[in-house]
Structure formats: C-alpha cells, structure tokens
Design goal:
By secondary structure, this protein is of the alpha+beta class. It has helices spanning 18-29, 60-69, 82-91, 98-104, 107-116, 130-134, 163-172, 229-245, 280-283, 288-297, 337-341, 372-386, and strands at 10-14, 33-37, 51-53, 72-75, 124-127, 143-147, 157-160, 178-182, 186-196, 202-204, 208-213, 216-222, 250-259, 264-270, 310-316, 346-350, 361-368. Bound molecules: adenosine-5'-triphosphate (ATP) and magnesium ion (MG).
C-alpha cells in the first residue's frame, strides 16, 4: 500500500486555470491546504488557494517553493513543460507522472500509444518536413491538419480538402510538426473519465456525450443519449487499458468519436480532469476532482455513482456581448443569471475571470433533474434565456 497523505497536509497543483480552481475546492472541502503555481496574479485557482506562487512553470525558485510546501503535487494543465514535472517528481509524489503527461502532450506519441493499447484512432500521417508532406497518401484527404503540440479548443487546426490546401495550411502553421488526420464521418462524440490509484485500482464515470461548436465543447449530456451499453463498455475498457499501460496515477479523460458506421475511434486524451467531466461535481456522489485528490493522496478509490441525469452547458465569453443589432456595434452586458437561477436544478459555476473574451471559457452550468428528459428540457430553457443555440 502507498502511504496515505492525511487531511491537514498541503497539496500542490501546477497551473491556475478553472480545473485547478475546482481541484482546490475539492481538496479544501476534505481539509487539505492548497498551493497553486501560476504566473498570472488573477488566475482562477490562485484566487482561491491558500498559497499562490506567482511564477512561470520553469522558474527554479517557484518550483522549489512548490516542493517545499507540498506533500504531493498534481497538474491541471497538460502543457506544463515535462522538464518541470520531472524535477517535481524527483522530490515529491507527482501524479500523473511526467512520462504519462509527455505522451499526452504530443499527438503523434499519443496515437502511437493508442495503437500499442489496441485502441483504434483516425487514419493519419505525421508531417514534420517537406518530404513527408509530398508523401501523404491521398486517402487522408479531406482531412484535418493539427499541430502535434500545444493545441486546444480547436486552435492549431486547419481543415484541408486538397493537396494544395494541405501545403498552404502546413506553411501557415509555420512548418512545425503536425499530424494530418482523415476527416471522419462522425455520428456523435463521447468521452470517458477514469481514475487510477498508485496501487493500480481503477474506477470510471459513466460516459458523457459531447457536442462541440467551432472546435470548443458546448454541451455535455449524461447518460449519453445515443450510446449503446456495448459501446460504452468498449470505451471504458479502452480507456482503462490506456491508463494501465501508462502506469497512470490520477484522473485521465479519453475522447472518442462514434462514426456513422457505428465504430469507436479514439480522438485524444487529457492527463487531468476534463471539461466534459464538470457535471460530476453536481450529478455524481464523487466528482472528478474528488478522485484527483484521492489518487494523489493515496486514499481508497470507490466507484463514483451518477445520482442525477445531467446536462452541462459551457459559458463562453461571447455571452457577455450583446448581439449586434442593425447599425450598432456589440456592447458588453452581464448575462441574465437571475432568470437562469429561477429554473429548477441549475448549478452555476463561474471561474472568477475578470475579462470576458469571445471563445474564452468563463464558466459552466449543470442542470440536474429526476430524468434525462427533464434535465434536457430545463437546459433548453436556459439556452433560450442566454441566447445559446439549441441542441
Ligand atoms: P480540446 O483539447 O479542446 O478537446 P483540440 O483542439 O485538441 O480540442 P480535437 O479534440 O483534436 O481538438 O478536435 C476538436 C473537435 O474537432 C473534435 O471534438 C471534433 O468535433 C472535430 N474533429 C477533430 N478531429 C476530427 C476528425 N479526424 N474527423 C472529424 N472531426 C474531427
Ligand atoms: Mg478534443
């Protein structure tokens, strides 16, 4: 058995975004002290943690302070430089480990890892140089060209139909390392969150069905309305094989496509809690953040249970701008929270970000209800009030 780090100790997190903020909330609820490392003085997690080290991820003094204060360390952001995680991991229990995070930081490595675990992913080719660009097989077009590193929320991606498009897109991305994926015919998208302890114990949440708009998650529904039990089990098995083979400790999310022919294809994974798992805070008896705390402290894992069907809506900065009416430019406004909060089963989560920007994740909202139909009906009313598209 791994030693249990009891409440009263201090837990550290690399990164101060909303995922770090919700981790801090979960850790504090259980009686832990928290410390966040993030250079931004107004970071969502830094605002609520007991200690905020305002330093860059590679700042030696910042990392030293984090280690000195923390009994164990986790990350809320997969693009924390692997070197920083290696340094931390050499001195403190670090979960997930630097090697596992490094695999998730690189789309090509990630796909190689899926293949090793016998998990199907989109047909693809790595394009790192002009020769590889030339040699791309025609069946990958039309496709999506993605940078191998640092992409999120649809950034660093270009849809390409022809070889000429592809060459132009690769040049526009700066000739960096990329992966061209065949554009697949999606029926719908799902994701699964698993947690693995240092002792190898594995638990999972039910699958969530996700709707993206402009490459950004917009709506998550649980239970997944279109998923069969057989497909659900295959996705869970696949995610558990991936976690197992990485020797993973922590919370891991794997995103899948369900194709129009019914097959299941892995898209990508995140070595941390995931936006599609935010519903677990309000709809499950243990949240993804509770499990992050448990995996890093060596606490026992118990299987989480969904107690209410749920619909999660992401709240992007766009909501803070009134749509332009004839001849007028857009103006700033506050969404009508009072009307939203008048609806039953609405849980509002705002991340404390001072400046709304279009496409910026400002918060989310989860609707829970006694039935999936009711949750969906209330979520559609919320969407109408806020001016979001129906789903
Ligand atoms: P995030 O990290 O926010 O999930 P990302 O920028 O890493 O996003 P992806 O998950 O690779 O982006 O893609 C974003 C969305 O684009 C997917 O959820 C899916 O809707 C669509 N998409 C990506 N790849 C493909 C593909 N090969 N075929 C069809 N659609 C795709
Ligand atoms: Mg994605």
């Amino acid at each position: 058995m791994t030693a249990f780090i009891a409440p009263g100790a201090t837990l550290g997190v690399m990164g101060g975004g909303q995922l770090g903020r919700m981790f801090v909330h979960a850790a504090q609820q259980m009686g832990y002290f928290t410390v966040v490392l993030d250079a931004d003085p107004a970071s969502p997690a830094g605002l609520v943690a007991h200690h905020h080290i305002k330093a860059d991820y590679l700042d030696e003094q910042g990392l030293a302070q984090l280690m000195q204060r923390s009994a164990a360390i986790t990350t809320e952001f997969e693009n924390v430089p692997a070197a920083a995680l290696m340094t931390l991991g050499a001195h403190r229990p670090m979960s997930p480990g630097a090697e596992a995070v490094a695999v998730c930081q690189d789309r090509a490595d990630e796909k190689r890892h899926f293949a090793r675990c016998d998990v199907a992913c989109a047909p693809h080719a790595v394009i790192d140089n002009a020769a590889q660009l030339e040699a791309v097989p025609g069946h990958l077009l039309p496709g999506i060209l993605k940078t191998t590193r640092l992409g999120y929320d649809g950034k660093g991606q270009v849809r390409v139909a022809t070889r000429a498009d592809l060459a132009a897109a690769w040049a526009a991305l700066g000739g960096v390392s990329t992966v061209l994926e065949q554009q697949l015919q999606l029926a719908f998208e799902v994701s699964v969150i698993v947690a693995r302890s240092a002792d190898g114990q594995l638990v999972h949440f039910p699958l969530q069905q996700n709707l993206h708009r402009d490459g950004i998650l917009a709506v998550t529904q649980v239970p997944a309305p279109d998923l069969t039990l057989a497909l659900q089990q295959r996705a869970i098995d696949a995610a558990e094989r991936v976690a197992e083979s990485l020797g993973y400790v922590g919370v891991l999310c794997v995103e899948f496509f369900v194709l129009q022919d019914g097959s299941l294809v892995a898209n990508e994974m995140a070595p941390r809690p995931h936006n599609s798992g935010h519903y677990t805070v309000d709809a499950c008896d243990l949240s993804q953040f509770d499990l992050q705390v448990r995996t890093m402290t060596g606490a026992p894992l118990v299987a989480p249970r969904l107690h209410s069907p749920a619909v999660m809506l992401n709240l992007l900065g766009d909501l803070w701008f009134a749509p332009a009416s004839s001849g007028q430019s857009t103006s700033a406004r506050e969404p009508d929270w009072a009307r939203v909060l008048a609806l039953p089963g609405v849980h509002l989560h705002l991340y404390g970000k001072a400046t709304p920007r279009r496409a910026r994740k400002m918060g989310h909202l989860t609707v829970t209800a006694a039935s999936a139909a009711e949750a969906r009906s209330v979520a559609l009313q919320v969407a109408t009030v806020l001016g979001l598209s129906a789903f």
